[in-house]
Amino acid sequence: MFLSSNLRHVSSFRTLPLSLFTSPLRSISPSLHWPSSSIQTKLFFFPTGLISTPLRSLPTMDGAPSATSDATSAGQMVLEPILEEGVFRFDCSADHRADAYPSLSFADQTVRETPIKPVSFKVPEFVPRFECGYGQQKVEIKFPSGTSFYGTGEASGPLERTGKRIFTWNTDAWGFGPGTTSLYQSHPWVLALLPDGKAFGILADTTRRCEVDLREECTIRIISAAYYPVVTFGPFGSPNEVLTSLSHAIGTVFMPPKWCLGYQQCRWSYLSAGRVLEVARTFREKGIPCDVIWMDIDYMDGFRCFTFDKETFPDPKSMADELHSIGFKAIWMLDPGIKKEDGYFVYESGSKNDVWVLMSDGTPFVGDVWPGPCVFPDYTQERTRSWWSQLVKDFVTNGVDGIWNDMNEPAVFKTVTKTMPDSNIHRGDSNLGGQQKHTFYHNAYGMLMARSTHEGMKMGCPTKRPFVLTRAGFIGSQRYAATWTGDNLSNWEHLHMSLSMVLQLGLSGQPLSGPDIGGFAGNATPKLFGRWMGVSAMFPFPRGHSEKGTTDHEPWSFGEECEEVCHLALLRRSRLIPHLYTLFYFAHTKGSPVAVPTFFADPEDQKLRTVENSFLLGPLLVCSSTLSDKGVYELSHAIPNGIWLPFDFGDSHPDLPILYLQGGAILPVGLPYNHVGEANPQDDLILFVALNNDGRAQGVLFEDDGDGYGYTKGEYLLTHYVAEKNSSVVTVKVSKTEGSWKRPTRRLHIHLLLGGYAMVSADCMDGEEVQIVIPSISEMSKLIAASEQEHMKRLETVKAIPDIEKQPGQQGIELSKTPVDLKSGDWSLKLVPWIGGRVISMTHLPSDTQWLHSRVESDGYEEYCGTEYRSAGCTEEYKVVRRDLEQSGEQESICMEGDIGGGLIIQRSISILKNNPNILQFDSSIIARNVGAGSGGFSRLVCLRVHPTFTLLNPTEVVVSFKSIDGSNHEISPESGEQSFEGNLRPNGEWMLVDKCAGLCLINRFELSQVSKCLVHWGSGTVNLELWSEERPVSKETPLRILHSYEVIKAIS
């Protein structure tokens, strides 16, 4: 079996038999493959006395077909050609194919079930292998050396995914990091780019939790509950062809109204109608383009959906009318959590119509969210979707132009899992899968809510295109809604990640996405915000958003230099909307992508495959800088082969991206506007022309009303422009048109790019043929030299954004500072010395597991100086007093000190040692640095309290396990609540956090004589494993100290 052979590769890891744990295993990944490490091979023997429970088949909690308890099967999957040439459905057997649940990803479910007769049947080049057993199905495909992986949907971290693993389990992932493995959306999809530039796609068509493991080079492994089909696409000649074919299966993006492509301003929250109008008017007064203002949850009456606060938003329709009068649209939030309150009309009507998600006992599930106790609509039922759609239809009469679905993973407060129980019941329609446990529908919940909202908006305004934004989604959600990349952080790392995240979503079928510009959590600095606005103004979905407690994050909030950069960026955006709208027309009608990685220009070029600071919008190459210390012109950009000519709108700036037009392309752009509604079909149109080596170029422009459905009836104008060089003359003309619209009477300005920002121009009426004479070689050289000189002069004279970390009077947490990296051996850490010296990320590299990930100002790894929660030590600024790094990179350590008052400091040394690179060691002390003689040289009472907050990847599959000093064995699950252990009940020098699903154990060892108390506290998706010293005064001679370490071992079955 292919999976068992992989186990040979992990021989360098310590192992712990999973069968020794007392609770049954619901999900095991025996196929885990880690690269070899420096850890010596050892067999870990678990303390004796525990009851051994052998592996057995999983209970079919969500009605999944049951794998027999002992029998396993393996081999090549059986196939059927479906959909179109080159697309295949694979199942473990014909019986499994017949038993498979309906597809929620396919736009037309029957397509997956209907074999086709291909024109010329060929055996697929790549055939998946499978192994089934213990209730799971594992799928593997091998590819040739030099293959690169992309996709996996909404995923943080690098663009190229080799070495990474994700889990499709929609999760409220506030402040996620590059190693977070489950975000808000689920796309069990991988795009493989082969060495020769051809491409291949694979979709695991299951809504259940799914592990997509790309940690071994050139190998895709997918693990989920049995049984499910996989669908493969290709290999085709290019990645674009694969994505187009994928869209034929999962559907294309909804046709967006043109106004939603303009800039959009949001905040949690604009607390009154007056404040909303003030922000809107400021945009107009300053001439900064903006099309949309967003209303976060505080507009509601006590967070009750479909209501308005009578004091702060007393007349939402009048406010919306005033916004409309100055060219703004209004978008409002709706969450799934409905307050359980008698007399509240939504709760009353929902209960009457029996629409709520149920617990296993048949009563409505109640969970806490923003309003307090809430019930949740069961969108898997048609009657629930109709009920919700009717509420939305009535809601839009208040002047609502768009709806924002948030918290729809669904997120639930005060739970370890951060969502509703797996055992909850959804009474789904038969064509969705019928009645199932929550595990079956969890990943589809957000998509089904967005679908219901989309349908409700369409009912409310039949002549308008709905606009819905959803946080949670599943592959196929683009049919109903746009998305954003969730609650990011205001720092340079998240700015950089935003490019890859938007591109990954596009490579997974969702082209309409973008980040919270400037970062949601924390305070951006002027340079960070300006740089983020510069690149995000080129993203498909451009929205600025920030959370409560942060400074204002409007474009004018960071000083005049940053405001000018934002102004230029958004004017550039408004000029490019005709091009972007055309791209979305083809995305909607043809399934072509909108924003794609640079390698799409030359898929065979290996050096382009990991480029993360540039991307393509059709033939337009956008090159940016996401580095705090370098502007865009200080970087060497990877430019694809061929002709790429730089150009601008007289707006070049070190904090704005550089724009290149591909040779052979014509780019239509418009005039700059304050909002999309200002544009008129008779306005001047500009064409930028870049000839290819053959002296030719072509481009296309789509135009319609910008809203409604007239385009489906031919009420549009699709113009194909061509340019051709003959001798020294370039002729530009219209080669073809489509649609019933007549060409507007307007001026056409044509700019023929020569290189080095130089151009020659000509004007005519649109539709006329125009000829442009190309200058002689000597004249062209002079033009290019003069243009380059003028361009450099502009860059030298523009006002750069100040390079400051904090503005005067700014309050709140600084996320824009760069964390300190500690990376060596098996470990990679990020630390923030400026706030408590805390560790905010702790990643075990061989298993690619992020054991600890937190927000900057709380949680993570903290240390206190007292028994009370968060006493001094966790927020004070620490200074790095020593940093040791061996030349070989095999050993690294850092020593920090924080002043905790009264002459005391906390000193912490974190080390990854050369002779034990698998061990991460913390050596912490409370030291009396300057204690007065009047106190006898002794300090106040202190206690060194080590407080790490570990992230639970699989909250329901985790236990804390140890053997006490007295010999008793302990296994503590989340249901146990908070427990502390003192005296002989303390762990005998070590305890471990065991993730049964991942098959991993995090062992924490400590010096027993230094620890007087151990405490376990379960949070929402987290657990604290605390070590407490004794409580006493300290002197220079008698410090408090806790020396402890962490090691990851693999549990084996």
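^ that was protein a. below is b, sequence first then the tokens
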Amino acid sequence: MIEGANEHAPEFASDRYDVDISEYNILASAQQHTAGEIIATVTATDADANDEIEYIITGGNEDNLFEIPNPLFGNIVLKDPTLIDFETTTSYALIITATDLVIPESDRRTTTTYLYISVLDENDNLPVFSNDMYTGRVDEEAPIGTSIILTIPISVTDADSLYGMETVEFEINTVGSPLPSPFLAFTLSEDGTSLTTTIAIDREEDEGVFTFQMRVVDAAGNEDTAMMTVDILDINDNAPMIQEPQGGFLIMVAENNPVNSVLVTITAEDTDLGVNAEVFFTLQGGAGYFDIGHDTGVVTQIGSLQALEPPVTFTLTVIARDSGGLSSSRDLIVNLTYSNDHAPVFESSVYSGSVAECAEDGTPISPVLTLRATDDDTDSVVSYYIESSSVGDLFQLENIGQTATIRSAGSSVFDRESRDTYTFTVYATDGIIGTDDDSATVTIFISDCNDHSPIFTQDMYEVDVPEGTASGATVIQVHTNDADIGENEEVRFNVESVSPSSFSNVFHVDPLTGGIVASVNIDNTYTGSSACSTLDDHSNNVTLTIKATDQATMQDQLSNYTTVFIRLLDRNSEAPSFVPSSFYSFEISENVDGVDLGTVEAVDECDMDSDVTFFLVSGQDSAPFEIDQDTGVIRVIAGLDREVNDFLVVQLQAVDDGTDPGPQTGHASVTINVLDENDNAPKLVRDTYDISLPENIPVSTTLISIVASDPDLDENGTISFSMQSGDSDLFMLEGSPAGSDSDHLVTKVSLDRERVSVHIVTILVSDAGSPQKNSTAVMTLTLTDVNDNVPVWTAGQGSEFEIFENVTNSLVVDLDATDRDDGLNQELVYFFVGGSQDYESFHIDRNDGTLHIARDLDYETTPEYTLNIVVSDRRAETDDDGVTPLTNSTTIHIIVTDVNDNEPYFNRCPHGYEIPETFRVGAVVGNNIKDSVEDDDSLAIRTPFYYYIDSPENVECFGPFCIDLYTGEITLESNIDFETTPTYTFYVVVSDMPNLSPEEVYIPPRIDLCDKVGTEKNNITRVDVVLTDVNDQEPVFDPNSLLAAVAEEAEFDTTVTVLKAIDKDENDTFSTVYYEIIAVDPPYLVNRETGEVTTADTFTGRSGETDKFTVVAYDNRGNEPSFTSTAILTVRVFKECEQIVAVADQTREEAEKCRTQLETGISNQTGYIIYITKIRVHQDEEQNIVDTTKADMIFYALHLTTGDLVPPTEVIAIIERGLDFAGRPHKESPGQLSDQHLQAILWRECRGQYNH
């Protein structure tokens, strides 16, 4: 550096420098700018001697494209020429600063100049069609030069300015081999915007669709291509041509051919399309007899030909006409032939009659059956016959002219009971061969004759009828069978005889049912022993003879008989009865046993021979007794104790030996009165008493009550009390009345412990029985000294005070008391009693009785206090002489006055609510927050509660939820969506202050807030609102999954594509999508759950065709509510060899792992939908080499918008434009295949079909 005075600033040779540079041209092969190339040099001089100058770019180099490598030289160089792009930036203005390098640095001087850099345009951009595919249409036979109607205009752009659209040329290339070639049929205008015909195209002879490639080339040879598809629209230029039917145009029809019969179906072909190919038919000739279906071409006979006499010939002209009016015609010849067409016809198809089973031979069927059939043919003779041989011997058919009658063939062959109906067929014939015989059905019913008697089901009926059967009861029923029917079958019953006759009115028979019915109540008059019966001819068996008669006419009636044997059964229905009564009473003294108490007796009146057995019913009272089962003697087997039980009741049973229905039992009661004996001495409650008594007790004081009892009765139980020993001057018995069970020992004088400290008194207790019994009680009485005087309150006792809470160390009251005793009995102490925690808030001076507040009182904790205070003599502390201290107590009541010193708080956290995402705006989400608020202040001073959202900004609402200031009610104020926000959490503050600002309300919520409920009282709580998902989203198809292709060589169950539809619902049931194809017999199947579309047919010969089907995606398994989406699945059919083979520098396994990435990468590179159909080990077919280090990916490409199969050459061209030799993307067009080295080639089999 140069030191010295710096008087001059550097000066540039020019205030402005200009330079031109060319943009980087990726398409050019000529020499271009290089990195570090000097594009300009600036120089400056300094009048100061020996000053060095530093050059720096100080402006205009925001993209850092330029630099001065050596600041001591003014050379400006280009850092990266590839970043120079005319289409992005056309010029740069750099500010160059020159600074002299003097010392000190503060003396340095600078100057600036400008370098203007102009970027020259290069032809580095391709002309680009605006679309990859164009479509158009033109009528066939249109005049030469007719413009094609384009769906979208043809448009080409070129970003270069000097080499733009004015330098491009358009041309048509051929694709495929339609005839005539597209480049002969169409031409592009010079500007490429219109397409016209060069020939008149016949759609029926030439192609209906032309597909060709349009090419645009600029002056440098840069080009782009686009596909054009021209549909040739049909015009009505072809008449329908009638086709000859299989049997030709000559038809033979019989005269009796049925009306509406189809004679022939006429078809026609029209090579036009659509409505132009729709054919309609008309018929000329044969009016009234024949017609043709307008749409179907079916020729039918519409009228009867019976009136015509063959031979007759009809010439019918069939005309086929299309909707455009073009037509053709052919003649149809119909010849009418003869037929014998009438057959006999019965007047009725069904005949019926009857004949009696006992009818004589030849009896006519009733009513007389006359069969009649008619025949419309002239001079026809009708005869009748029975074809069935099964009735040939039973019925005769007699032909009479044109009719026939039927008779029976013999009476011996009919038996209605074996068969009551005969059905057979009768035929009518005219004897002409070729005509059908008519038939009629004849049914003959066989009527009944009374040829069977009623038959009883049994020759004899037996029945046992027990005693007790009620009048009107059916004891048995007789039954008959009669093979006849109707009145011949109906039967009436009657009693023919009864044995013995005395029972004639005991039973009768129901004439209709045959039931044997008791006419009287069956008691022991009929069933018992003769001793109890009143009948003269008493018997236990009755025999009835019953007659059954059918109800045929009187002269034809038939009868039959049966016997009913009835056994009358006696029952043991009477129980033995005790005599003379069922109640007995006995007396016996207590303490005796082994003696008879008494005897009981029972008899059975209707069965004097019956044996009776006696029993004692077991029970508590029956234990001391037993009874002789045969004689009824009751004996005492254990001594009785009257004091335990003086009255006993014993239950007896007398049981006979009957068997039907079993033994009967009679009952009796025995009452035993137990007589008293003097067997108990008086019993004292206590035998000894030890009693301590204070001295000075009053005269006549009851010292103790002596209680005794004697369970004996009367004199044996009457007791009395007396002093057996003791000082009768000091004590006496109070003298209870005679017979009383207690007496009292009382003082006669005041007792002095210092004179006699212990007294012993003996009390004698005696009863009045003989011999007399006694008991004694000994009492020991001990006197104790007493503190005779209690303290007496003189001030402050029993007071009530009101004190405000939160006041400390204040005097409440000064208590005072006196005691007239001397010594320790006179000295007093004060203290609390009761152990209440209330005393912790107060302090009482033990010696002087002053009461103070010990700590702040809290109304919310304890609103009032009750203090029990005791004053006592010093005996409470010393108690060394056995004298009980005397005390006095008082109650001090303290009322705490409340002040508003507490905030409201929540006793619950959090508050949770669950609502569906379709919850109605304005509806209440929750209204129970107020229920969890508490305030420890009293109701009298408590103010209302107010509720706020805990927020520094908005205390009324949080998101879609708002809270009512006064009630805490949370409502929904705007729509919610589960898929956007499934949960909301906010905080609510409660206060007893209204209209608080956000700054006053806001409390930063703690994470552990809800964990402190129960241990802390917080005026903030958390609110959690959880939204439940509702099925409100419909599935949305991924459009790329709706475009696919399939090779015509594909086998069954080949995967074509996988349908993808997204449902934004969260719930798995709602968001799971199912798929269906809506089509009749489609060649594809779709997996309902995965959406995988597979082939269900073969596609041989269908290359170039397109299948389109409606596919449906639905959610919620189709249950309500369910949302569906429909879309069109487009599948192009192509030849397998039309696919592209891309060679990747990866093994097959590695390529398989990144199949999806490869598809995405190639798709991003080309702009097409890419489907990789197969990945295999690389096969170099030209060198016959298999390379396992590489993989062949076989794929095809579909256009994003049209779904058309993109020509392989076009896909390869795009890939090659975007990749360098190593397969890496060029810098100006980064792609997704930077880690995939690809080389795209065509399959060898198809390579000859493309220019590549």
